[in-house]
Amino acid sequence: MVLLAAGALLALVLQSRHDIDREARNRSVAVAETFAHQLGLQPALKTSDPSTVLQPLAEQTRKAAGVDFIVVMDTNGIRYSHPQPDRIGKRFVGTIEPSLQGKVHTESVEGPLGKEIQAVVPVKDANGEVVALVSAGLTVENVTGALDRQLPVILLAIATGLALATVGTWLISRRLRRQTHGLGTQEMTRMYEHHDAVLHAVREGVVITDGDGQLLLANDEAKRLLGLPENAEGRPIGDVPGLERRMADLLLSGREATDEVIGSGDRLLVVNQRPTHPRGRPEGAVVTIRDSTEMQILTTRAETARRRLKLLYDAGGDIGTTLDVVRTAEELAAVAVPRFADFVTVDLADQVIDGDEPAPGADMRRTAISGIRSDHPLYPVGRLIDFLPSTPQARGYGTGRAELVPDLSQAPGWQAQDPPRARAIVDYGIHSLIAAPLMARGVVLGVVNFWRSQKHEPFDEDELSLAEELVARAAVSMDNARRYTREHALAVTLQRSLLPRALPEQSAMDVAHFYLPAQSGVGGDWFDVIPLPGSRVALVVGDVVGHGLHAAATMGRLRTAVHNFSSLDLPPDEILARLDDLVQRIDHDHNGDADDADGGGVLGATCLYAVYDPVSQRCTMARAGHLPPLLVAPDGSTEIVELPAGPPLGLGGMPFETAELELAEGSQLVLYTDGLVEERTRDIGEGLELLRAALSHPDRDPHDSCRAVLDMMLPARPTDDVALLIARTRTLGPDRVAQWDVPFEPSAVGAMRSVAAKKLDEWDLTELGFAAELILSELITNALRHGSEPVRVRLLRDHNLTCEVWDGSSTAPHLRYAATTDEGGRGLFLVAQLSEHWGTRYTPDGKVIWAELALPGTPGGEAVLSAFLDVDPL
Known about the structure:
Main location: membrane
Radius of gyration: 50 Å
Number of strands: 31
Subcellular location: Cell membrane
Transmembrane segments: 151-172
Structural class: alpha+beta
Helix content: 25-40%
InterPro entries: Bact_Sigma-Reg, GAF, GAF-like_dom_sf, HATPase_C_sf, HATPase_dom, PAS, PAS-like_dom_sf, PAS_fold
Oligomer: single chain
Distance between the termini: 133 Å
GO molecular function: kinase activity
């Protein structure tokens, strides 16, 4: 009756809500259509201020019609009327598109008056065009008021019905109880027969005992399960023959028991016992018994299958966590101990560890061991094993099929590999073996050996299948690790071959460097130290976005380009501009190549280029999207160099700017890539502060500073390449530099030769006097004849002797071969023959022509004069 009443109430509520909603919609549509067809509506719409006419008319109609609002709006939804005047002129809340098409639309929306049920109807002119819209509706609060008024009446009716039903039920129950007391003998006998038939037919034993410990009842199933005689009923429990002692103790105790397992012969019985309380006090117990022997066997098998599935599931997550061959082998060995085997050894072909394809043969190296004990006699890790053809390992490696050896003591083929060690293994207690080959893509990578010692039973065929499945899953991870090792080694080899192996000899700076490729693959970071004419040196650090062979190859191309551009002795901003053009051409070439499926263009690259002059102690630098360098002063203070930030290479369209610093002797210039300061656990600002803290020790040399930075900041597993370059400045003092201003007249050539010869005598470089005088004579003559004032001469004694002639002209000379009849044109040819290198560099005030001579005692220093004497006669 309660359910019927609840259902009736729910139906009434739903019906009432449906009727109210329908009524609200009908009233809204009727009022809106009525107002839309009023004769004065369309004339009012054509006035300059329709709201003046429509607002009073709408309010009057709304109050008369009993709705909550009537809104007149234009075709854009802008209101002309509203019960709240401040809403006039604002956009209507609701859907007007269907009404703009001439349809009547009703909906429930959240409007200015609350949740509303509204209707929108079109206002059409004589041509049928929609010129305005009218909306009318009711708020939900007012709509549901009728239901709230009806609900008490409905609840009262339901309560009255429930009261009447309760009284009727009580009367009927009393009558039925009175009638049951008059049940006849035949009916009672039939009920007892039915009860007895059911009791003995069920497949569950039932035993009833009284409070005195007598067996009152045992059905046929209980007698079968407990082995009771036919006359067991009515006898004391302790005197019943064939009853197990533990079962008798349980029956005599009268305690509660739930699913208690008791053995009875070769059966496992599940027993439930509950005391009975017929008159409010314990007077016996009811016991149910069921046979769970077969269920126990099935449960054991299911548990075994569950453990094996759990092992395979865990293997999928625990094996192959890294792309390292040795680590993958260790994970494979660890996951199977002790859940599947007592000891596991993994033997891999030697080539697999290095990432190569395995060669034919059975020579394998023991890569991993895991066991329940560490004092086992198995081959140790690292041992190279040449398995004999008679061993299961060699056969499995050759055929790709797993082999089961149930009894190692009866396996002569296995024992022939190493008889003394085989005896030690058997004496240790290891008695069974499964040798499963690691096969991936049809290639056998090695063999996994599963050894058993604690369980007396040998491995069986089901466990052989499990071992094959486990090894097959691990083989995929092993092959992935092998292929990654090979590709990573190739990329690292390529990248290291593209990076400088040793820094060139130069006197301008003491330099320390460090490079570490990312753990996930090599990238495109690079650094360089490039000697320049005039004892200057260029420092370069760059970064190509991405990882892998493509990034390393791109880095090599950019590094080669930097070397080539540096040989032109261009300023840093022009070097970066030419690199930018090169990257754009590379991208253009790859974008135009339809066969370039891997997108071989440069995804992005940054670079920082700095030139330090040890004579003037000035450093000129520019950067293209790279992090700014750090400057460590001799007193230990550190600062980030305020360097104009140019765009990354390849964007084009924007010039690069240079900055010039004057560095005190002993200052340290630190160049780095973002892999050093950026990390997932910290932002770049925190990384820069750590770098500054690590560098604030002026007493350290660059190598010590490099180690300090790496100890503080280098991540354990870097996700990006790390490149670091630390350079401490030195100066070329006045004792190694000589400079003179040259009068702009031909007679000055002889005077310059004379003073230069004296300076060379002071430097103990008299052997170079002839060549130096000839070179200076030619260069000064060219400057006076083809250049402009001012003209200067400078000699630098460093690893070689540098002769420089400065003038104010930007016209560069070029080498040519003079004809036999030419009177001139052989000067630069003589300079090129006498010097090791010569060239031109431009300055803001003109140009410098320089030539380098090897010092006596150095390679090439004795060949200066002989080279001159070998010149063909003119």
